[in-house]
């Protein structure tokens, strides 16, 4: 494998602002979890269940739009500004279609929650959260396409600043709706859903404003000669994004659906898992940010047709992923007890969360490698194998093993939430091997086509 200090520096330059933007976005969910947990264990459990159902829908639909980053990066590398404008305009229509789809799916989440074997108060609070948060979908998806274009041309800092403003707004707005200030009803954990919707709309407006005033983006004239929907182009974006959508859905549900399967074990089990999942999600932002930088860099080099530089960049990216994994694992193991204590004062919950975080240290290397390979494939605009590999790895292998370990005595005595996390470790390891193989095969194909 080849390592380039220059490529490593460039990837880090791209990834650092993306990392802070991603952390800031995730901290909104962390803030929700913390503030709901301070109200009651029931509110925390309700939020965990509601997020477990809603996030796969939200991030799955967002996954379709993530293909735009690679497309824009490729066009930018090739110097094709009109192509960027064209795909951005078509993506706006895609946002409207996906938002309508998401709102039509939302009512069915009530059927899922109603069938859970949990307390009626938790069911009521979960339904309240989803009813409010669904109205933020349009804002979130609009923010996403503006961010994809901005980052695709190499501007990764704006999303961080806008996300930071969103986080700062989220805290007081959360408090207002959770506790019922200024004449508002006290909604408890459901108030987090309303706050989230308002913050997403705010962030979308800021991204639009920035695109109009930025010296770089204004030259692209994103809204000039605005085109009608073009089925062929919409189909292209959809087909390119669908594997990313499915992969995102499979990964999010692997983590987020666990609370649904352990709900019958009581609020302690659900809350302990949710704390560990929340901490792991924040730490995952390091490898994810590197992956997003890989999409941009690989897309640019692919558009320029620099195959040798492309191979060097991808090799360097995998080595950086290993370094990131070591950092994250060390941080997780060393500070697991301290970080968990920020979420709850319940000793049983903290003991469970700490034990799960030890398991989370183990999967950092395969997780970092699989998400880096995912980014390389997106940058190459070769997303087809991603969905099949992630489904096989996350669900057929990871979830199945996790369920057997967590809920049955078939292999060992039922382990509870820890069993699911062991399944995650195995699933991510399989995904890393298969996705890296897909990257190698794609590069071999590109080399063969040139020669």
What does this structure look like?
The chain has 451 residues and is mostly helical. Helix content is 84%, strand content 0%. The protein has 18 helices and no strands. The chain has helices at residues 5-39, 41-65, 67-77, 81-114, 120-133, 137-152, 157-179, 190-213, 215-218, 231-256, 258-261, 267-283, 285-304, 307-341, 347-362, 364-379, 384-407, 417-450. Helix 1 packs parallel to helix 14, helix 3 (67-77) runs parallel beside helix 6 and helix 13 packs antiparallel against helix 14. The model has no long low-confidence stretch (mean pLDDT 86).
Secondary structure topology:
Layout: H1 5-39, H2 41-65, H3 67-77, H4 81-114, H5 120-133, H6 137-152, H7 157-179, H8 190-213, H9 215-218, H10 231-256, H11 258-261, H12 267-283, H13 285-304, H14 307-341, H15 347-362, H16 364-379, H17 384-407, H18 417-450
- Uncertain runs with pLDDT below 50, 5 residues or more? none
User: Strand tally, please?
Assistant: 0
Number of helices: 18
Structural class label:
mainly alpha
The percentage of residues in β strands lies in: under 5%
Could you name the key traits of this structure?
451 residues, mainly alpha
């Amino acid at each position: 494998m080849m390592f380039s200090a220059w490529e490593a520096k460039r990837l880090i330059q791209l990834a650092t602002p993306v990392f802070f933007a991603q952390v800031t976005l995730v901290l909104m969910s962390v803030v929700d979890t913390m503030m709901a947990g301070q109200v009651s264990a029931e509110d925390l459990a309700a939020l965990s269940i509601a997020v477990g159902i809603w996030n796969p829908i939200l991030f799955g639909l967002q996954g379709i739009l993530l293909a735009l980053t690679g497309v824009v990066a490729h066009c930018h590398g090739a110097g094709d500004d009109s192509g960027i404008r064209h795909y951005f305009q078509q993506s706006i229509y895609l946002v409207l279609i996906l938002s309508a789809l998401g709102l039509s799916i939302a009512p069915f989440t009530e059927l899922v929650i109603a069938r859970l074997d949990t307390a009626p108060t938790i069911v009521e609070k979960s339904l309240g959260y989803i009813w409010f948060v669904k109205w933020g979908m349009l804002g979130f998806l609009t923010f996403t396409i503006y961010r994809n274009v901005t980052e695709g041309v190499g501007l990764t800092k704006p999303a961080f600043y806008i996300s930071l403003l969103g986080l700062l707004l989220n805290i007081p707005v959360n408090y207002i709706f959770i506790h019922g200030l200024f004449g508002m009803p006290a909604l408890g954990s459901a108030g987090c859903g309303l706050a989230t919707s308002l913050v997403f709309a705010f962030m979308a407006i800021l991204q639009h404003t920035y695109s109009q005033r930025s010296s770089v983006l204004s030259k692209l004239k994103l809204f000039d000669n605005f085109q009608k929907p073009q089925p062929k182009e919409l189909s292209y974006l959809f087909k390119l994004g669908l594997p990313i959508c499915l992969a995102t859905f499979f990964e999010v549900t692997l983590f987020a659906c666990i609370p649904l399967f352990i709900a019958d074990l009581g609020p302690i089990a659900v809350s302990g898992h949710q704390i560990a999942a929340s901490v792991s999600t924040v730490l995952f932002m390091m490898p994810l940010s590197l992956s997003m930088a890989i999409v941009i860099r690989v897309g640019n080099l692919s558009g320029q047709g620099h195959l040798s530089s492309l191979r060097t960049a991808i090799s360097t990216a995998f080595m950086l992923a290993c370094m990131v994994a070591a950092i994250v694992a060390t941080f997780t193991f060393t500070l697991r007890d301290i970080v968990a204590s920020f979420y709850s004062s319940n000793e049983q919950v903290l003991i469970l969360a700490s034990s799960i975080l030890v398991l989370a240290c183990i999967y950092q290397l395969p997780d970092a490698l699989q998400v880096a390979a995912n980014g390389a494939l997106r940058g190459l605009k070769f997303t087809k194998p991603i969905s099949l590999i992630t489904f096989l790895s996350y669900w057929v292998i990871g979830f199945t093993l996790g369920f057997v370990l967590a809920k049955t005595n078939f292999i060992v005595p039922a382990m509870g939430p820890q069993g699911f996390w062991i399944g995650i470790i195995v699933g991510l390891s399989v995904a890393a091997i298969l996705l890296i193989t897909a990257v190698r095969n794609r590069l071999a194909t590109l080399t063969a086509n040139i020669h």
